[in-house]
Design a protein that fits this description.
alpha/beta; Rossmann fold; eight-stranded mixed beta sheet; 12 helices; binds ligand PMT
Length: about 400
């Protein structure tokens, strides 16, 4: 997603400076070219050599480097985005005062690139009126602040002051970079989410434990990335993400009807919903009374919404999910083929931190060409970005024809 983007990463003197290594790794993995500039005090906490190896670029510190004449002007001009992480209370004060006594502070005055800062400091320092005033001044000047997180601090205290985690910082970088050129602009994305409910009688139904979190995360990220998003949702406790059209349904039949109405207009379709595979053959008009004996319920299969869908537009990409409890790759690959998908997201829902009603997921992404990529456990929001990224990549690669 960040291919071709130049990020200037400033690292200042803070115990959290070592985390800049993880950040460099994340940003370069996403395709960005990362130029690191260290302040003098940052050298006490992290080695320029390690950062050079991680970024694959020279690491600069001095305004007076004979080999990098006018580096402050070149770096300031070339950067698509400036990120300072971690930024110390001292450096925040320098920025607020507009000082320019080292390479990083000088290039901040020279750059026109959007700037993000991620503060890290001890609890009392973050609350100090001088820091609060400097932060609000920087915000007024258009600098975006990634708020520090709460947790154990280097001083042994607990509270707000920890550098935001690398996922949060990377997401903030992407959001800011894509503000003017969102990667999904022009795309019409149809997403299904949540469970379905198949009525037994007026008060009882068959359903499952889907919370809708995976589908809502996809809808939120797709909308933030510039897509026009429709979310067809089974019953959940979640509010629709802003800017997303939500169509609320209950049963598989209702979901199928809404899906078919929106299908043709959509350039990307993502089916995360846990559609009930069975429903009662008939729904009792009145609440079924106890009879004191064993009762059986006759069930029939619901329509398979993905499998029986009409052929879509030529440019339509279709992504399905597979919730499996055994033979993950084999079963998911079968669904990929039978349901004529471009990509399937396979989750083994028996794993802790994966699948139904949790904040994270652990998945394999399987493309039509067959290769499966295992992803580590991550938040459903971060995973949503990865799924959208992979989906877009497919469009640039000619697909093998379906058997
Ligand atoms: O909602 P959360 O709590 O965040 O949980 C996320 C999730 C576990 C629901 C999600 O990650 C997931 O796996 N969704 C798919 C669940 C499922 O029904 O999988 P399946 O293997 O039974 O179905 C395969 C695909 O066919 C799915 O894309 C499904 O939406 C679709 N399907 C299934 C049955 C049916 N009648 N019609 C369908 O279109």
């Amino acid at each position: 997603m960040l291919a071709g983007k130049k990020i200037l990463l400033g690292v200042t003197g803070s115990i959290a400076a070592y985390k800049s290594l993880h950040l460099v790794r994340e940003l370069t993995k996403a395709g960005a070219c990362v130029n690191v500039v260290l302040t003098a005090t940052a050298h006490e906490f992290v080695s320029p050599l390690t950062l050079k190896v991680f970024s694959g670029q020279p690491v600069l510190s001095s305004l007076f480097d004979p080999e990098n004449d006018m580096a402050h002007l070149r770096l300031a001009e070339e950067a698509d985005l400036v990120l300072i992480a971690p930024v110390s209370a001292h450096f925040i004060a320098k920025m607020a005062a507009g000082l320019a006594d080292d390479l990083l502070s000088t290039l901040l005055l020279a750059t026109k690139a959007p700037t993000l800062i991620a503060p890290a400091m001890d609890l009392g320092m973050w609350d100090h009126p001088a820091v609060r005033e400097n932060i609000s001044l920087l915000k007024k000047r258009g600098i975006q602040v990634i708020e520090p997180e709460s947790g154990p601090l280097a001083s042994g205290k607990e509270g707000v002051g920890r550098l935001a985690c690398e996922q949060t910082i990377t997401e903030a970088v992407m959001t800011l970079l894509f503000e003017n050129h969102p990667p999904l602009s022009g795309e019409v994305v149809l997403i299904t989410a949540g469970p379905t409910e198949e009525a037994i009688d007026p008060v009882r139904f068959i359903s499952n434990r889907s919370s809708g979190k995976m589908g809502y995360a996809l809808a939120e990220v797709a909308s933030q990335w510039g897509a026009d998003v429709t979310l067809i949702s089974g019953p959940t406790q979640l509010s629709p993400p802003s800017g997303v059209e939500r169509i609320s349904v209950r049963s598989a039949a209702e979901m199928e009807k809404a899906f078919n109405l929106k299908l043709y207009a959509s350039s990307i379709v993502i089916m995360t919903a846990a559609v009930s595979d069975y429903r009662p053959v008939s729904t009792a008009k009145q609440k079924i009374k106890k009879t004191g004996s064993v009762r059986t319920l006759d069930l029939e299969e619901t329509p398979d919404i993905l499998e029986t869908r009409a052929l879509g537009r030529d440019d339509q990409l279709v992504v399905g999910f597979a919730a499996e409890t055994e033979n993950l790759i084999e079963n998911a690959t079968k669904k990929l083929k039978n349901k004529r998908l471009d990509l399937i997201v396979a989750n083994d829902v028996t794993l802790e931190g994966a699948g139904f009603d949790v904040e994270t997921n652990i998945v394999h992404l399987i493309k039509r060409a067959g290769e499966a990529t295992a992803l580590p456990k991550m938040s459903k929001r971060l995973l949503a970005g990865k799924i959208l990224e992979e989906t877009l990549k497919i469009r640039t690669i000619p697909l093998p024809s379906l058997p």
